[in-house]
Amino acid sequence: MAGQRALLLGLYPCVLMVFSMLLPLKSRGQTCSNYSFPSNQAFGSCTDLPYLNSYLHWDYHASTGKVKIAYRRPSADTSKWVAWAINPTSTGMDGAQAMVAYQQSNGSVRAYTSPIDGDQTKLEEGNLSFDVSDLSATYASGEMTIFATITLPAGNGTTVNQVWQEGPLTGGGTPGPHAFSGANTLSKGSLDFASGLVGSAGKGGDSRLRRKYIHGLLNAVSWGILMPVGAMVARYLRVFESADPAWFYLHVACQHSGYIVGVAGWATGLKLGSESKGITYAVHRTIGIVLFSLATLQVTALLIRPKKEHKYRKYWNAYHRAVGYAVIVLGIVNIFRGLDALNPLNKWRLAYIGVLMVLGISFLCLEVCTWLIVLRRWRSERPSPSQAAEDKVVRGYGYGAGGAINGIFRTQYSM
Prior knowledge:
Layout lengths: L1 H28 L15 E4 L6 E7 L4 E8 L6 E8 L9 E7 L5 E7 L16 E9 L2 E9 L7 E10 L19 E5 L5 E2 L2 H35 L9 H30 L6 H20 L11 H30 L3 H36 L5 H8 L11 H8 L2
Antiparallel strand pairs: 1-2, 2-3, 3-8, 4-5, 4-9, 5-6, 7-8, 9-10, 10-11
């Protein structure tokens, strides 16, 4: 029917818009990723550190075991020092091997290394337990940046305990003790330079990080793979007469499996949100709530699905397709929002883009094949080249691209 055809045609631009939004979402969502260093330096990986408004960029060279890092602290107060450190033996400041920077009274920036032997350290200069080279710091436009190349401590592999900190300068222009409350006590965690995995402080942080990855994996499989595959099954397999009613059961199996996995992903998201006080991904959360609500509505609507001959069946079909496509669109968008929040290495984003490319190519191929089959069937089944086709249009057969082939599409799109 005309309204249903308009609905379908209106959904195609939405799908295309999603693909055009995928790459820009990353640049808009992550401060560290869209940052350009004034010196034109480039780093392959970065993370937004969760406390003290800080960011870490790095390049890991597996052949040498060295890591080139840049630690940034925007809106840095010139009356404070900043530091980034690796702790080879523990998770806090005690035992940390730090790189410290602050602006001196003459306007120059001092950068040096300081091994820390206790909470009441004065950050005195000294050699670290691992090699550090190319150490420097800059202060420009209110931002302090520490640059260095480090050799990873032996025995720890590529995963380290990192600590970042800031505190006041004393009247003599030397570093004083940092605060022992709030964000200053939470600015630590684990970091794997090879994989990009970033964990919060302590074992609880590592557990939350694992749950974040489980949450992301469940939702990627559910909303990002099973739901689109289920929709493709319903759209393209039904054109084969031999696939009826198998296509319907396969469609239901994909959609219900996707919903069940999505429920698990949604539940882990709620748990993570309750444990992350003060850390809010408002857009990701809002889309997730809307997405889950629509998916739940879609599943429960099956209980009131009219029979094929019912006069309201065409309206139910239109609703079912509209909500189904909305779930797919929102699911894909929110997966990329989740990738922005989790901030793994870029290969995971590229991997899911690869999945979408496979689905997109499959969609195009199946669309062409479907039209060829429908047109061939129409030519073989029409009783006359004129009146029969016009009668079908007048009677409003089905849901196609218009004209006499609508009769074929009535069968194809009726569930």
